Amino acid sequence: MALRGYVDRLSRRQVIGWARDAAAPDRPVALVVVVDGHAVGRCLAEQPRDDLVAAGEGHGRHGFTFAFPHGALPALASCTVSVRREGDGAAVPGSPLTLDPITTFDADLREWLSLILAEPVDAAERGRRLAFLLEEAQRLRRAEAADPGVAPEPGARPRALVIDATLPVDARDAGANAILSHLRSLQRLGYAVTLASVDMAGDAAALEAGGVRCCLSPWYATVEEVLRRHSGAFALVYLHRIDTAGRYAQLVRDTQRGARLVYSVADLHHLRTARQAKVEGRADLAAYAEHVRVLELSTARVSDAVITHSTHEAEMLAAHIPRERIHVVPWAVAPCPTVVPFAARRGMAFVGGFGHRPNVDAALILIESVMPALAALRAGGSAAELPCLLAGSGMPDRLAAQAAAWPGVEILGRVPELTTLFDRVRLSVAPLAYGAGVKGKVLDSLAAGIPCVCTPVAAEGLDLPEPLAGLVADTPAGLAQAILALHEDEGLNRACAAAGLAYIAAMNSAERVDARMRAALDLPNAEPANAVPELSYPVAADSLPTDRRQHSQTW
Fold first, then answer.
1. Residues 189 and 318 reside in one and the same domain
2. 8-state DSSP, 367
């Protein structure tokens, strides 16, 4: 019997066409849909179609639409689809048809979609297209929400969520190094780690390769969405810095009931801001510092544990919250001593990103106050024979002009590998007038076997032992004296270099980070919060510079 009809359209979701039996033109035709030789379903050709009436195909109720089961045919496989009459298997004209695989969501496919979407259409069609795109986006995001990399699994490792303002990049700054060190510690302690950044952006390839699951755009729009979509998924939430902790602490309590909430202060922002206000004589900044102080302390009070890197800040916090909830947790720094002999190195290095205001101020102090004091100590009143290397990105024009005018100062800009810098110098200098927290530049210098001359602010919270404590000075003249002594006295320099390497090995090892982190997370076998390794160094007392605090000159 003759079978009229046609397969009009085939997609991976459905097949559309019409069929009419010439022997029984008014009776619906029963059809079977076959994919790659296997019947997947049946339908009746009974849908009304005006175009068939206009073409003289009887009453026109011969159309069919068949939706494939399970939503759609596989996108990555080739599929051959035929529509046949039930009974004798006669094929509907235009059948079979083959769908080629969509191998990749490549540039050609994206361009094709863009061209289609960019075609001029009326408002109704724009609305339909937008609704389609939103529906597809939500479908993909729902699939992401069900990802077992975030959702809790019976018997799986407990999952920790770490929230920071941006994705940390190794060696970018001390804050990034600290949080990366703590991420790795969490992994070693048995946690599966998820990271969300407030800006929802960045290259997560390195973090993902290290086993850290990152929640970013376009899968998530906000940190709030991460917390709400994965309600109850996390056993631990680690909030880094007050910008994130103050914003999300309460939402963490609401969405992650039972999770341990850890607030890592990085450094006390109100302390740094108050010191800056005092140095610059700014009442507006002092008022803002008080606002931040209230926010930091209130956030600390609602947290289960507060992490700081600084013993000084731990004591400040202990005046406001129970001491047992405060944990001094360093970050891991690997000793990497320079192998360049003392005689082959000259001068000093200043390290600091100039996007951070305290570093700009410190560099100005170095050039305007310390360098002249050093010149006065040297024979002939010149410091040109003692090079000063300034390393750091984003140097302001004013600072660059002043630095370039001083003999012996070399502006390096950003230095990708600090080892190349430390291989050139005999010491580093950190003349910070204000700031807070532990200074990564000091730790990096000590880890390279390069002694660091610094102000009390730069050394604060480290509890440096002798002879390193003897390199701390609070006046330009005191700093200059320590610089000159370290630069000219090889024995003193060697003793301080050895002391710095021993300090880093004892205080900033991965093992010590883990032990302190165990205490903060209330895990068994934690190191006591007040445990400090014993450090001792063989150095003659008379080889140290005199007390820096006897000088009257200040800045």
1. yes
2. I
Q: Can you give the residue range of the structural domain that contains 20?
A: 3-99
E strand map for 165-308: 192-197, 213-215, 236-240, 260-264, 305-308
Q: How many domains does the chain have?
A: 3
CB 485 within 8 A of CB 510: no
For tokens 């048995």, the residue is 190
**In this structure, what token pair is assigned to residue 310?**
């600084």
Amino acid of residue 225: E
Q: What is the CA radius of gyration of the chain?
A: 34
Among 303, 249, 296, 247, which residue's Cα sits nearest to residue 272?
A: 296
Shared domain check, 363 and 252: no
d(CA 65, CA 81): 14
Tens digits of residue pLDDT in 317-359? 999 999 999 999 999 999 999 999 999 999 999 998 888 899 9
Tell me, yes or no, whether 255 and 279 share the same domain: yes
Gap between the Cα atoms of 434 and 458, Å rounded: 8
Flag whether 540 is in a domain. Answer: yes
Residue 519 scores a pLDDT above 90 = yes
pTM (two decimals): 0.74
| Strand 260-264, strand 236-240: pairing | parallel
- Cβ atoms of 444 and 462 closer than 8 Å: no
Omega of the bond prior to 69 within 30 degrees of 0, cis? no
Give, as one character, the DSSP assignment of residue 151: S
- CATH code where residue 362 lies: 3.40.50.2000
Give the pair of three-digit tokens for residue 22: 């010439």
Are the C-beta atoms of 190 and 157 separated by less than 8 Å?
yes
Please report which helix (H) or strand (E) contains residue 243, including its range.
helix 242-255
CA atoms within 13 A on the CB side of 429: 35
- Most distant CA atoms of the chain, gap in Å: 118
Task: State whether 459 and 381 are in the same domain.
Answer: yes
